[in-house]
Structures are given as C-alpha cells and as structure tokens.
Amino acid sequence: MPRAGLSTQAVVQAAVEVIDEHGVAALTLAAVAARCGVAAPSLYKHVGGLAELKTQVGIRVLNELADRFAAAAMGRSGADAITALMHAYRAYVVAHPARYAAMPVDPLHHPELAAAGIRQLEVIQAALRPWRLDPAGQVHTIRKLRVIAHGFASLESAGGFGLPEDLDETYRQLIATLLDSLPAHP
Amino acid sequence: MPRAGLSTQAVVQAAVEVIDEHGVAALTLAAVAARCGVAAPSLYKHVGGLAELKTQVGIRVLNELADRFAAAAMGRSGADAITALMHAYRAYVVAHPARYAAMPVDPLHHPELAAAGIRQLEVIQAALRPWRLDPAGQVHTIRKLRVIAHGFASLESAGGFGLPEDLDETYRQLIATLLDSLPAHP
DNA sequence: TCCGTTGGCTAATGTGCGTAGCTTACACGC
DNA sequence: GCGTGTAAGCTACGCACATTAGCCAACGGA
User: Fold this and answer.
1) Per-residue burial over A50-72, b = 16 or more CB atoms within 10 Å of its CB, e = otherwise
2) What Pfam family is a match for this entry (chains A, B) (predicted)?
C-alpha cells in the first residue's frame, strides 16, 4: 500500500482540474479521488468533506483572480487602470469558464472567503482613487463595475450570448459608457 | 389507493414551490413527491425525470418573466418603456430570488426553452424600435441591457452586495447611464 | 357491467456522501 | 539498524436520491 503523497492543496488542485474538464456540476469526491489515484474516503484525511472542498476551490479561484487584478493594475492609473482590470476579469473567465462558476458571489459573507474577496476590492479601490469619490459614490461605482464585469462574464461563460461575434465590442462599450459617467478627474 | 390527481403542470408547480422555499439546490424528486403526497417513482408518470423537470421549471420561469415584461411595456415607449422593463426584471427577481437561479441563461440553445426566450426578446426589440438602431447596434444594446439586468439581479438574489441600502440608486444609475449612451431619438 | 388505460404503489439497482474502524508506510529517536 | 507513534491509506457500512421494473387498482367509456 504505497502512499499517494496527497495534501489539501493537491486535492484542491485536482478538484479545479475536474471542474475545468467536466464542469462544476461534475465536482464529486469520487471524481477527485479517482484523479488523485485514491479511494474516496481517503480524501477526508485532507479536506473536511465536499462542502469544505468547494469552499477551498472558491478561495483558490478568488485568489487567482485577485492575482490577475494586481498584475493588471500595476503601473496604470485612472481610466487606464479600470479598463485593464475589467479586461483582466473577462480574460480570466474566458480562460477558465467552468472555474468561474465555482467562484462564490458573496465572499464577504463567509469568513474563509472574505480575505480573498477583500484583496480584489482593494485593487479596485486603489484604481478609483484619482477620482476622489465620496464614500457613497465609491460604493455605487464599484457596484456598477462589478455588475458589468460579472454580468458579462457569467453570461459569456454560460454561453448566454447567442451570436459570438463582436463580444469584444459590446464589452468595450459597456466599460466606456461607465467611465464616461464618472466625474472628470485631474 | 385514492389518486392524487397530479398532472405535469401540478408537478412543475410543486417544484417551483420547493425552490421558493428551500432554494434551487433543494429541488429533488423526493422533495417534490413529498409535497405532492406521492411516492417518488410516481412522478415519472408526469415528467421524464429530474433533468426534464428542471427544464420545465425553466420554461415556467422564463414565461413568468416574459409576462411581466409584456405588462410593463404596455402603454409605454422609448426610454420610459426600457426603464419599466428593467425595473420589471429586477422586481421579479426580488420577489422570487431562488426561482431566478432556476432560470436558464442560454434559453435559445435549447429547443424547448427557445420559445419562451424569444418572447422576452421581442418585447425588448419593440421597446427599442423608436431609436431605429441598425441591426448591429440593436444587438449591442440588447446585450448591454441584459448584462446590467442579469448582472445586478444575480448579484442581488445571491446576496452578493455587501450593503443593502441604496441598491435602488445603483440600479437607477446603471439604467440612466445606458440610456444616455444611446443616440437621441425623435 | 366490463375492460383498457392510466396513475399510483413496492422492490431493487446504482451512485454519491460521509463515518467507523483497521492496517501499514514512514519519519524520528535511540 | 531498530522500534514506535502518527497519519495516510484502506474496506465495510449506512443513508439519501434517481431511476427502472413490474404489479395493482381506479376511472371512464363502450
């Protein structure tokens, strides 16, 4: 009985691969165990169960997106930075459509996910700084950016757009319109 | 052995009630059967199985929303009509948050759902008529409306907004910004 | 009243989650 | 090199759910 040498992160990695290949609905402990070359109950040595595994996957995905955010915002500011963030969001979802469906929509309500969610938030807040928005204005602006990014991404990743052509143009228009609606900044 | 007097529509109705009360993840044949006062296998006399039941629920929800659309657009035109449609969308989702999660995002790709999806589309196309958009402009505009409505609704119904106050204002701003971005019409 | 159809049932199978309890590989101390 | 404790694997089991098979009774029309 040689050991497989698993770890929590290895199990999460296998779960992400299962999702990428077969969709989020195919994430079962049986599938993950098979991919790890292990019997299903053995996974309980590394994760608390299916629910916890899904939470871990959520954390992983949130952090991956936060990494992309940080990279996209680096060296940019103002409208340029916001545009780069919005395109980084979409690029991640296009690269990993199934994985996006595993990203929790309300991370701040879950203690384990909150840290990863706040990482994303901070990058956006920094990018908005040049506008010197009042707190309420900042809340509305972040919400509107999120509505557009999430709305577009969830529709695109779920195949919700009938005609695939010109999606870039639609997304560009959405971003441009939102930026135009912000007050001018120096 | 008295009969329960079920029908396909009665089973779908029970499924919608289960979703409303316990969330879309709780939609199981066992739960629907219990609500109907029937053993689970008996449901197969009325629906083909869980997958088909979910499709039927999707059709029901799509049509309910299309009904709201038709009612909201009646007697209005132009920006007034678009605004009414957007608020009808959100009002439906606020009234039935769990049900919204059962609404398929890509109805046009499924023959059984397409008719209900097209009903919605036609109401929006009619409301946009005063702008006399060229076909590409119409596609982009409908997509943008959908991104905003679906993005906002899915975040709101999933508890994705941290602060509940002022959500009306955020949504109003999104609609107003989009309408402002359209060319003026006579 | 008779009989075919139809809507209900029980029984059984397969899959998946999760628990209990056993065994053994491996790292560490001597 | 040799115990030995821990932890990583295992099998066996119970439960929930979807689905199929096959039985039986209720209902409605001739």
Assistant:
1) eeebbbbbbbbbbbbbbebbbeb
2) TetR_N
**Chain position carrying tokens 């999933």:** B158
**Average confidence score pLDDT of chain A:** 95
CB-nearest to B140 from A106, A139, A169 is: A169
Measured distance between the N- and C-terminal CA atoms of chain B, rounded to whole angstroms: 67
Radius of gyration of chain B (CA): 19
| Domains located in chain B, CATH noted | 1-48 (1.10.10.60), 58-181 (1.10.357.10)
Q: Which nucleotides of D are covered by protein (CB under 7 A)?
A: 7-12, 16-22, 25-27
Identify whether the C-beta of residue B14 lies closer than 8 Å to the C-beta of residue B36: yes
Which nucleotide shows the minimum CA-to-C1' distance to residue A2? C25
pLDDT value for A151? 98
Cα-Cα end-to-end distance for chain A:
67
Would an 8 Å CB–CB cutoff place B148 in contact with chain A? yes
A141 to chain B: closest CA residue: B170
- Closest CB to A178 among B143, B162, B177: B177
Looking at residue B186, its pLDDT comes to 56
* Residue B154 near residue B100, CB atoms below 8 Å: yes
**Angle formed by the axes of helices B8-22 and B50-73, to 10°?**
80
Q: From the CA of B127, how many Å to the nearest CA of chain A?
A: 20
Residue A48 forms contact with B (CB below 8 Å): no
For residue A75, report the phi and psi dihedrals to the nearest 5 degrees: 75, 10
